[in-house]
Design a protein that fits this description.
The structure is a single chain. The protein is an alpha+beta fold and about 200 residues long. The chain folds into three domains: about 5-60, OB fold (Dihydrolipoamide Acetyltransferase, E2P), CATH 2.40.50.140; about 70-140, 5' to 3' exonuclease, C-terminal subdomain (DNA polymerase, domain 1, Orthogonal Bundle), CATH 1.10.150; about 145-200, Helicase, Ruva Protein, domain 3 (Orthogonal Bundle), CATH 1.10.8. It has helices at about 30-40, 65-75, 80-90, 95-100, 105-110, 115-125, 135, 155-165, 170-185, 190-200; strands at about 5-15, 15-20, 25-30, 45-50, 55-60. Strand 4 (about 45-50) and strand 5 form a beta hairpin. The longest helix has 15 residues, at about 170-185. The protein is globular.
Length: about 200
């Protein structure tokens, strides 16, 4: 298993990062939370989880070990795959996810796209004893305090957010309307991360 990767950021997107490790480029899927922690960095160390499937080997990366542990808890639940777990960690901070599970806050979990009532119930039932809130709230994650965003390859915030949402599997036309509604309501100064979070919660 690949426990971590350390190298130079060759490409960064809200849904993935390509890390140059001694001339080898690793494509690593990331949460919006980790993206926020990487934006100002040139070199990075990511804690990784390797998922091996018949049709692909997929690397997931996290700026904090605590986020990786929570990701691994999430995918241990029946019906929660890697992409859904990243969706959860892109919609809420790790602390918010842990708190929702420990306090049985189904409503908050159901606010995440792809998480229905039954899935939220399973998350709480199967993870409430595993998730230790004190371990997840022992320190602040850098992404939570981020309020600005960088331009990605000349894209506007709307285009960057749309690209990320389409990468996550959402229909382009639907997301275009959702993003336009959010931008009209929140204004153009909204950070890309917040724009995507609002979209993941349905606007």
């Amino acid at each position: 298993m690949i426990a971590f990767l350390e190298g130079v950021i060759a490409e960064l997107d809200p849904t993935y990062v390509i890390i140059n490790c001694n001339g080898v480029g690793y494509l690593v899927k990331i949460s919006l939370y980790t993206y926020g922690a990487l934006r100002e960095l040139k070199t990075v160390k990511l804690h990784t989880h390797l998922q091996v499937r018949e049709d692909a080997h997929i690397l997931y990366g996290f700026s904090e070990i605590r986020e990786r542990k929570l990701f691994e808890h999430l995918i241990s639940v029946s019906g929660i795959g890697g992409n859904t777990a990243l969706m959860v960690l892109s919609s809420l901070s790790p602390e918010e996810v842990a708190h929702a599970i420990v306090t049985a806050n189904e409503k908050l979990l159901q606010s995440i796209k792809g998480i229905g009532g039954k899935t939220a119930g399973r998350l709480i039932l199967e993870l409430k004893d595993k998730v230790k809130l004190d371990q997840l709230s022992g320190g602040k994650f850098s992404a939570e305090n981020s309020s600005t965003s960088i331009a990605f390859a000349g894209l506007t915030k709307r285009d960057e957010a749309l690209r990320a949402l389409v990468n996550l599997g959402f229909p382009k036309a639907t997301m275009e309307k959702t993003l336009d509604t959010i931008l009209k309501r929140e204004g153009e100064d909204i950070a890309v991360e917040q724009l995507i979070k609002f979209a993941l919660k349905g606007g």
